[in-house]
Amino acid sequence: MSVLVVGTVGIDRVETPHGERSDLLGGSASFAGLAASFHAPVSLNSVVGEDFPAHHRAIWEKRKIDLSGLQVVQGKTFRWHGQYEQNMNNRRTISTDLNVVADFQPQLPEGQKKLPFVLLGNLAPDLQHSVLDQMQKPKFVVADTMNLWIDIARTRLLELLPRIDLLILNDSEATQLSDEPNLVRAARWLRERGPRYVAVKKGEHGCFLSGPEGAFAAPAVPLEQVLDPTGAGDTFAGGLTGYLAGQKEANLSTLAQGVIEGTILASFTVEDFSLNRLASLSEKEIASRRRDLLRLINPNP
Amino acid sequence: MSVLVVGTVGIDRVETPHGERSDLLGGSASFAGLAASFHAPVSLNSVVGEDFPAHHRAIWEKRKIDLSGLQVVQGKTFRWHGQYEQNMNNRRTISTDLNVVADFQPQLPEGQKKLPFVLLGNLAPDLQHSVLDQMQKPKFVVADTMNLWIDIARTRLLELLPRIDLLILNDSEATQLSDEPNLVRAARWLRERGPRYVAVKKGEHGCFLSGPEGAFAAPAVPLEQVLDPTGAGDTFAGGLTGYLAGQKEANLSTLAQGVIEGTILASFTVEDFSLNRLASLSEKEIASRRRDLLRLINPNP
Known about the structure:
Two copies of one chain form a homodimer. By secondary structure, chain A is of the alpha/beta class.
């Protein structure tokens, strides 16, 4: 079944200890959409300016992603400039130019309103609500968020929770939103407010998934070198949602397998800048890393 | 087969956000020895003063731990006073009184010299060397260490590496010793200097095991409440070594299962102060938590 991926599309400038790149394709919808497309048909909803280059668009077209919901409006595409510290775990935003994202109002074409799976990528909670308002009873709704929205739109974010099935956020955001330093309790606090499942991302320490049937924990793929962590979380969310869209049921078992698929794709994203690695990724490479990851977590190989 | 556990025995005073306790049984050999005894016969080698209370000794005797190598010498038992911060991950040492540990020289009774498995608990590298000097070709040697010895006895610690089969240390210590912030590279750096296996402990994020056949990663047991983390690492090392002593071979697979057993026992240790929880632990409780942990890490339940 198909997945609607809503989020930002941007042009990034990224500085890391390994180098600096400009004019990179970025944004939550860009990573999540491409990742989801490895497991399911994907339809994108986002906005870009007139300056958005054709070679970025070609990356999605190559993977047959439906772009009928990608608005092209007067003005400039969203831009982000970030810098990673030596350890690659901490980053700071040098500048954010919202540009056309400032006035973005998701407008769903008729075809998108009926899609069964929705990934509400990192966006203002108001816009995430607006997408759900336009949809006709989706089967499974996933939402990502970030510390900014917990800071400035906490109430609207909490109001979103009863409308979604899976909330994805990182460990510090889970603690910030629930005021619970313990992640088991934080996940329970969040689940009590709506979503049946909560996936807490812990960066290089992997992911903790909590649901009514129990929990699942997976490590990240151990990598000797991380070139650019940008988009790893969006890739994870996209890979997980795309995998779910191909399954008969969404339960702890299929979500756990989705966590594995999201983890695999995210491990490729960080090996190069932007979507470079993901855009050229083969099924064979995915299968090989899946074998590695399943071996890594199996105490009885 | 039997395990020789060498390390400190101390009397602890622990302050946590959940309360404060004094006159607790502590020290690396205390936790590691008790943990190992759930999987193998254990023989302890350590030192205490004349003030060491009989009720502490009774905890080991109840689990049939051989105390022939426990020296009782004139003076006071080692004492440690520590305080945990609100998040329970950071602790500071308020005072350390080495007392009889200051002049400790491990003296192995004849019976201990022939034991096939050795756990060199956290101790000065000089003392860890001295134990191996007295042993007759042990089958498998495990060593734990800490940041203090990396700071003040780095050369002797590096000289120990070719003499051991498994090095256990935490993530910050692995980085400190190897000067590698990346844990995959840090583990390889350490293995190139001697031990076939390296287990990097990551506290609440679990453990990363690296060996010639590949790697294994396990999360910690997710707990809603941690009462006192003291001794969790020693318990992990003891549980892992004890498990190995009961296996035909030491390879990535049996070590991975040992990591699971160490993780299970450590999850009990932190649920109460000192060895309180471990001392009253039943096989049934261990089996139940093993089922929980194996379910937690299995994406295809």
